[in-house]
Amino acid sequence: MNKKILIIATIILALDQISKIIASIYLKLNTSLKVIPHFFYLTLCHNYGAAWGIFKDYKVLIIIGTLLAIILIYHFIFCFKTNKRNNLAFGLLIGGLAGNLIDRLIYGYVRDFLDFYLFKYDYPVFNIADIAIVIGIILLIYAVFKGEDVNEDNSSRKNKRKTRQVSSK
């Protein structure tokens, strides 16, 4: 794995876990602390499921799914073009997934605490890991649209080129 991706993932993991520890110490469970009225609150919640609390009765399945996602992402690191944006995307994804995975393994739930109201909609409470995952996915989608999802150095790509050259002779 690229050293830069590992550094980014480690920073995200540390920020996520430290912020969750601070939230767990200073916030009371399921009680909101108003930061910006009608917009931003700190609300400690325990999420036993995945995004928006779905699959809350399938903890083992979520853990297995997260591990498989990390393995799949690791594979894609070698398929995508190596550049700063893609390194950031993969680092954010791995760090975010690892942060929430650690919570699930240790506590059986994910500690969420960032609570926003947008246009009178109470958005589901989330954490630093969730932010990293979303930004990482957006960056990878952008990379796909830019054609950076195929690494020119990828050996399978070279083999395909060689096969085409041989068959055209």
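[next item in queue]
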Amino acid sequence: MRILCLSGPNLQLLGTREPEVYGSTTLAQIHAELADLGAARGATVDCRQSNHEGALVDWIGEARGNYDGMLLNAGAFTHTSLALRDAIRAVQVPCVEVHLSNPEAREPFRRRSRIAPVCVAKVAGFGAASYRVALYALLDWLDARTKVD
């Protein structure tokens, strides 16, 4: 099984950016953990980060036929990007929305996700562990679908 994990704007700053909100774990540490956890479950996890919406859209567009599922922490693009929403919907690769903090417990403008309606699930509020929980849940979800088909 192959999983694509995408992280959006400013997530390269994890570990030093507002640690009271986002924690002290770096994105590199999260990516390394996901690779190890995926391997333990027989999955390959390909992790990428970009501050550019177009790069994220391109990577999502390349997912069909190359990945079984996606994890997406779109950062601030979560609340604004119809392009990401349309890309997720177009490729029809199951996607889990991921957030370190709980957007619904923050500023009002963060409470609306443009991508949630085209994702199979959302994991938020567990800090760096949100990625781990999302990966395990997505792999379980994909395994269950395989057994049904």
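[queue empty]
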